[in-house]
Amino acid sequence: MDHYGDNFIPVIPREYLEHDADNPFCWNDGCACREDQDAIHELNEAYQGGLVTSEERDSIYHGRTV
Fold it and tell me: What is the count of structural domains for the chain?
């Protein structure tokens, strides 16, 4: 029987992007992303337009996935 544990190469990312266009907020409450007025305004417009619920809005703002 062949052993399959020796033919895999672990992939370790060099950088972990906490912020990008799809996720403007991160998990860190002390991060400057919490003060990004453009991102906050865009999130609020999505909420006002009915695209996200209040629970989803809060999760997005606190860096948790929806």
Answer: 1
